[in-house]
From TrEMBL, chain A:
Domain annotation Acyl-CoA dehydrogenase/oxidase N-terminal: ranges: 6-116
Pfam annotation, one family: Acyl-CoA_dh_N
Species in which this protein is naturally found: Streptomyces collinus (strain DSM 40733 / Tue 365)
Gene Ontology molecular functions: flavin adenine dinucleotide binding; oxidoreductase activity, acting on the CH-CH group of donors
An example Gene Ontology CC term for this record: plasma membrane
Recorded family membership: Belongs to the acyl-CoA dehydrogenase family.
Boundaries of every Acyl-CoA oxidase/dehydrogenase middle domain copy: 120-213
Residue ranges of domain Acyl-CoA dehydrogenase/oxidase C-terminal in the record: 226-371
Protein name in the entry: Oxidoreductase
Needed co-factor(s): FAD
């Protein structure tokens, strides 16, 4: 068991740290969540900056440990988060890299890496959220095209996206997990309508997408027809793997700020609150160690994130909510003031036990796939 | 960073597990729980001969020259096996109390207001003056109360960490037992493990145990006080809640003396009372947050 950097890791960390110290001071602030076109431009710009410095493909080509160091250092330095590029960089990109044809890789991957194009994720549907295999959006073949009709929901960044990684049902008679196909759909195609949804945090960061006989070239199909479920699992295991690494670093920083705020406003004298904060410190310390453990395991197994991702997500999503509930108690009456940053974070943390697989579904995954308990509800 | 067990560490863990399976099996546990708690001195000497107490002593002093990570793995296994006896105090005494390293001398330790295994001990760390026996909730751990001693105080970080390691072993074992039972026991025509309510209890047990494992192993590597405090908090939680959930999964059977579950639960309670856990750890971590810039 070794928690120290190897010489190569140390060198990578030092070089990255030096570069961040140079570029970050001149970087403007990220636009507010109400301004998604502004955020799109900003996030693409940051991706371009990373690209030009040689850090664009750290999520793909580098070892899990290198990626961990990248996320740790960028977060520590206060660098922008991947933002609008999340789906392209962490979902669609790796999927195309793993399953796409040479032509498909050449068409999409350089644009994702260079920060030219934004992707969104067309997986969830009104009747197929946690039960993703229940999706009903239909696609049928017509000449060189698929014709797609149906609707998607909870599609983050749909309004500002150029491409959508779309799951469609191509064989309605096949068993649920078969008969699904993975398509890259241009968002400016005829028949695509985007209706933004307002979240309980007040922002419009995701949307409903309506698809009315949208023509998608068959050449945009990644993987075989009716094999989209397998293609998707590659992406999902990735999502539950190390997608939250930077956030744990951020939570540890927030907890420190919280303690100092409590000291300054006198609430630190309340032993109940103080001990709660102490327990959260243990929690986020452990979550960071769990991340390092999972990454080391992934590295040993050839870079494939294991079931440790579900264990992590379950614990982390609840800890994050507890952190911002505690922040509200530190803030006192200010905990109801939407202009205080932790208050918006508290609201958005409510999605963590739902998004990317609810805690209830994650528990099923842990129980069935890790502990080997029988299937059933 | 390679935060996983080395081959040597895996081999050590397997070796200790085998040793304990051979020398302290389910039959021995049941027999011990049936009568008054007695320390098996022959077993104690065997553990000494196997190097469990002298593990961290330098080779020049007859030890194995290993470190905290290895000690943590060993104590996780003894916790898992529910091995009785003042293992921690004897381990801590190796190198200072003659005979402790080899298991010839049994050493007890005063920990706040409680002493485990005082009557069985040849030597005692701390001052047990006035100690009176109490009817111990854990049938496998005799306890004395030391009047006037304060509870929940500070403790040596190594003791806090190794207690966490034992709690981790208990948490992992409780999860295993619950899963075994949930697979085998049928109700309403299917294994109870197919029911989401049972499944989720088991999943939560694993999540708590695995989070605690990462914290305990990391604390063994860094030996940083805040890491040790975090490890102890999470391991106590994983053991206390895990054994309780395990009992729940066992249903009525879990409430009987015959099922092993209560022994694990009661031991977890005893260990949670040792110094350096609970409020002490929380306060230490809180203070640590303010100690930086």
């Amino acid at each position: 068991m070794d928690l120290s950097d190897t010489p190569e890791e140390e060198e990578f960390r030092a070089r990255l740290r030096e570069w961040l110290a140079k570029v970050l001071p001149t970087l403007p602030a990220r636009p507010s969540p109400d301004d998604w076109p502004g955020r799109r431009a900003y996030d693409l710009g940051w991706q371009r900056t990373l690209h030009d410095a040689g850090y664009a493909d750290v999520h793909w080509g580098a070892s899990p440990t290198t990626r961990l160091i990248f996320l740790e250092e960028t977060e520590r330095a206060g660098a922008p988060y991947v933002g609008a590029n999340f789906v392209g960089l962490l979902h669609a990109g790796p999927t195309i890299a793993a399953e796409g044809t040479p032509a498909q890789r050449a068409r999409w991957l350089p644009h994702i890496l260079r920060g030219d194009e934004v992707w969104c994720q067309g997986f969830s549907e009104p009747d197929a959220g946690s039960d993703l295999a229940a999706l009903r959006t239909r696609a049928w073949r017509d000449g060189d095209d698929y014709v797609v009709s149906g609707s998607k929901i909870w599609t983050s960044h749909a309004e500002v996206a150029d491409w959508c990684e779309l799951l469609v049902r191509t064989d309605p008679r096949a068993p649920r997990h078969r008969g699904i196909t993975w398509l890259a759909m241009p968002m400016d195609a005829d028949g695509v309508t985007v209706r933004p949804l307002r979240t309980l945090a007040g922002s419009a960061e995701f949307a409903e997408v309506f698809l009315d006989e949208v023509r998608v070239p068959a050449a945009n199909r990644v993987g075989e027809e009716n094999d989209g479920w397998r293609v998707t699992l590659v992406t999902l295991s990735f999502e539950r793997g190390t997608a939250f690494v930077g956030e744990v670093v951020a939570c540890r920083r927030v907890l420190g700020e919280l303690a100092r705020a409590a000291r300054d406003n006198g609430r630190w004298d309340d032993p109940v609150l103080r001990r709660r904060i102490g327990r959260l410190a243990a929690e986020f310390r452990a979550l960071w160690r769990l991340t390092q453990w999972n990454v080391s395991e992934a590295e040993a197994s050839g870079g494939v994130p294991g079931a440790g991702g579900s264990v992590f997500k379950l614990r982390y999503s609840h800890a994050r909510q507890e952190l911002y509930d505690t922040a509200a108690d530190v803030l006192g009456p200010d905990g109801l003031d939407l202009d205080r940053p932790w208050v918006l974070d508290r609201l958005s943390s409510l999605s963590y036990t739902i998004a990317a697989g609810t805690s209830q579904i994650q528990r099923d995954i842990v129980a069935e796939r890790v502990l080997g308990l029988p299937k059933g509800r | 960073m390679r935060f996983r067990l080395t081959e040597d560490q895996q081999a050590l863990r397997t070796w200790v597990r085998r040793l304990l399976e051979r020398r302290w099996d389910a039959g021995a546990l049941r027999a011990a729980a049936a009568g008054p708690a007695r320390l098996d001195r022959e077993l104690w000497r065997e553990l000494g001969a196997a190097g469990l107490f002298a593990l961290r002593l330098p080779e020049t002093e007859g030890g194995a020259g290993l470190g905290l990570p290895e000690a943590v793995l060993v104590f996780e296994e003894t916790g898992r096996a529910l091995l009785p006896g003042p293992l921690l105090a004897t381990h801590l005494a190796a190198g200072t109390v003659p005979g402790a390293a080899t298991g010839r001398t049994v050493v007890a330790g005063v920990d706040g207001p409680l002493v485990e295994w005082l009557d069985a001990a040849d030597a005692v760390l701390g001052d047990p003056t006035g100690a009176v026996p109490l009817r111990s909730a854990d049938p496998l751990t005799p306890l004395h109360r030391v009047p006037g001693a304060a509870g929940g105080g500070t403790a040596e970080p190594v003791a806090v960490l190794l207690t966490a390691a034992e709690q981790l072993g208990t948490a992992a074992r409780a999860c295993e037992m619950a899963v075994q039972h949930a697979r085998a026991r049928e109700q309403f025509g299917r294994p109870i493990g197919a029911f989401q309510a049972v499944k989720h209890l088991c999943a939560d047990m694993l999540v708590r145990a695995e989070t605690a494992r990462a914290a305990v192993y990391a604390a063994a590597v860094t030996a940083a006080p805040a890491d040790v405090a975090a490890a102890r908090l999470l391991a106590d939680e994983a053991a206390l809640r895990g054994t309780r959930d395990c009992l729940q999964v066992h249903g009525g059977m879990g409430f009987t003396w015959e099922a092993e579950v209560h022994l694990h639960l009661k031991r977890a309670w005893v260990r949670a009372r040792r110094g350096g856990g609970g409020a002490v750890a929380e306060e230490a971590l809180a203070a640590d947050l303010l100690s930086g810039p």
